[in-house]
């Protein structure tokens, strides 16, 4: 589900290969910095963790792996608060609901910082966005703009026609496939659906054809996501940061930043040009440009701020919504009784011949339980964006020092046996009855959007988008697996990427339930 703050969440698999040679050449220099920093004060008690190697710490243990799964396995041995050393960087991994509460509530201010990682800093215009900014006055002012101007309930309601139109377009496309008994690539169709919503809301544009501008837009987004996952020496060995400038990764980062900056600037110039065609629907760029003109506050909203906000929205919302809907359909096709219950609920409420509208969603309790259960088992960002401690604190008797890198493993928390019964099973019923557990940031056993002061400000609109799409897919069609494919063949392994989608595209056979109207 969409995230603009916490939910630009990442698996951060570490690919060290391009930098290993330079790193080894720099080890003699590294010794001069490392040795004095690695001494610990007698009597200090730190969280347990796996032993590391000299110089690189635990980096070698995380290479070429699905990081959130591997960290969960390590936490089973070393505990829900686990210490690692990634190069020179002291690191903590939190893997239980109890530890999430320590980070997001008890010590929220202490854990409110962000690490200064090279790729993230560059693409966020030196950390002036919402997602990667340090916790400071500028961040607070920008969050106020997000909450009051960009994603307020009134603003989200103004975007309702866009969401409804795109749902209708998707349903009509699938109906054509159903009428001709063709397979639907749901992964691809949902990616187009969510991308259209986000680009229309943010940019006032649609990129759903195969033209040059569509390829350019998608290419920039996907390359930025890849760059966010890239290993840079300076992130873990700051004294050797100068070596990054000799790597292909650094050239790739600069190239991607230049291309995306030009892309954002062209969009802004188009909105500023009085001769450009104007949409009746105000988009995010329109809102930010108007605020830049009229806002009276010590906070200076610059063009770079606007570009950084666009980066957050485009990278943080597009694929996260897609992933959540695809995972939900994956689990439902693997569990036919749950699919039937969800379809019966929505069909009894809505009836034949009409589409589900957003006003209907509050009545669909079982559908909401399906979405919650999906985000529990398959958070789009299994590791929430890394945080950095701003001061020292003590948790469970362990000292945590300032400038410690902190990962909250939302994927492991969703499988925490202390918080969930039968945690590995897909059971939407666990959210029915007396269960009040929700993902709004108050229940730390379910944190796909994060929690605390840095939780996602766009979670409500993201949840509405997911629920609206899923409700219409279940209402409008019966779904079958392709010939020769059994439900046991549908795996739950995720891709190794910034946002974790199912490893393989989901192909299903749609069977029309009724005639449908267009919004």
Automatic annotation (TrEMBL):
CDD domains: CYP71-like. Its main location: membrane. InterPro entries: Cyt_P450 (IPR001128), Cyt_P450_CS (IPR017972), Cyt_P450_E_grp-I (IPR002401), Cyt_P450_sf (IPR036396). One of its GO terms (cellular component) is membrane. Its cofactor is heme. Heme binds at residue 456. PROSITE patterns: CYTOCHROME_P450 (PS00086). It is a single-pass membrane protein. GO terms for molecular function: heme binding; iron ion binding; monooxygenase activity; oxidoreductase activity, acting on paired donors, with incorporation or reduction of molecular oxygen. It is found in: Membrane. It holds the Pfam family p450. It comes from the Eukaryota. Keywords: Heme, Iron, Membrane, Metal-binding, Monooxygenase, Oxidoreductase, Transmembrane, Transmembrane helix. The chain crosses the membrane at residues 16-35. Belongs to the cytochrome P450 family. PANTHER family: CYTOCHROME P450 83B1-LIKE, CYTOCHROME P450 FAMILY 71 PROTEIN. This is Cytochrome P450. It comes from Escallonia rubra.
